[in-house]
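Weekend entry, working from home. Most of the wet-lab plans are on hold until the incubator is repaired, so I used the time to fold the two sequences that have been sitting in the queue since the last round of cloning. Logging both here for the record. First:
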Amino acid sequence: MRPTSGAILVAAGTFLIVGAVATPLVVAPALVKVPLDQSSVTISKAQNATVLDFGTLSEKTGINLTAHRAVRGDVEAGNDDRAVFNVGVRVINDAEPDREKQQITVSTDRVALDRRTAMAVACCAEDINGAPFKHEGLTYTFPFGTEKKTYQYFDNTARKAYPAKYVSTEKLQGLTVYKFEMTVEPIQISEIKVPGSLLGSTEQVVNAGRYYANTRTLWVEPDSGVIVKGQEKQLQTLRDPAGTDKVKIIDADLAFTEDTQKQQAKAAKDARGQINLLTTVVPIVLGLLGLALVLIGVYLVVRAMRRRPEAALVETDDRPTTDLPSQRSPESVEESTEPAGGRHAAERSEP
């Protein structure tokens, strides 16, 4: 085999090795992004919650609640760098048969986020409940390669980001997850007019501050940034002018259902598999194949180079040669004068 064939294999192998190095450093970051066509529905449940019946202006206890959250990606509004999500959340009273009356809260959200860092970006007519609003921090997912540190996580009800602190590493749905906790201290989110009697006032109508507090816990699969489980201990109250909580609007401990956790775990595993393919499997395969081609190519080149002198020697030995006739040195040759038969014959011929 010619040395050229070995050189070609060395070049091809080198190319594959470069590809092995470039894939996790260049290719993977370019491909591992938040999907534009995000589509998911998560369901949370709360047992023995307390809610305010606005029809009767009375608190109801022992209520079971279900929260449905749908996230849909706006593909046309997204691009290589950002994704845009439209989100709707609806909390209902499971025991209320009347669909119009079973609804406790409804909210909508539109947010744009960086496809690599998952941080909110100002773009694309973002809003909360139809009113323009600039988001900040993380929203519905954590970044790829989530770290054991504090992140700013946006709360839609309070309309600001709060520190989500890393707490511990746990096992959940067969995955290793990072547990984060964030606390929203009581904050006034609105003011509404209510009958004075509701707050213990003698006035017919009074202004009541609506306050919100929450302790949110998130279990995150770190490679994919997927939130496998979410839990909220949410409290909303009406306060009198003195700042005292008088009525509970909602007091509930909402958490992802088991089915939702399994769904989220599957999404995390799928994403992690794709990430592992680009960052580990493909580089290893390319590297090993490239190394093999380089070694084979070097072997062929060396073998071909060693055989060239031998071939040249064989060619030299096999060349036809022209033998010149040997020339004998001139010697004086005395011609014999003796007759045939030798001396004795001559003697016999004398008389």
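Second, folded right after the first finished:
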Amino acid sequence: MADVMQGLIQNLVQYLIIAGLLLWSCYVVLRRFMPKTSFKWQQALAVWLANKRFVRLSGWLMPKAAQSGCSAGCSDCSVDSSKADSSKTACATETTKPNDTKEQPVQWR
């Protein structure tokens, strides 16, 4: 009887681990390929939790607002905000033209 229970518990733990990995993988794929839908679902879940008085959990789940411009961290900016004048700051994606590109040498470390 103890062997049967031990086998059932081991199977249950294995299924829970696999289910957790599968759910996490689906979450990552959803965030990667459908960010707007993921944002809306996450926000709806956070609002629903706030209405049910789970304020801390809803605050933790509330998605951050999408950033745009040079502070978005998109690595397309060619302007260093610490050195450039604030009136002349612009992202490379907004100002580059097809003929405006320069070749840069490869830097080996």
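Plan for Monday: verify the second prediction. The chain is about 55% helix and 0% strand.
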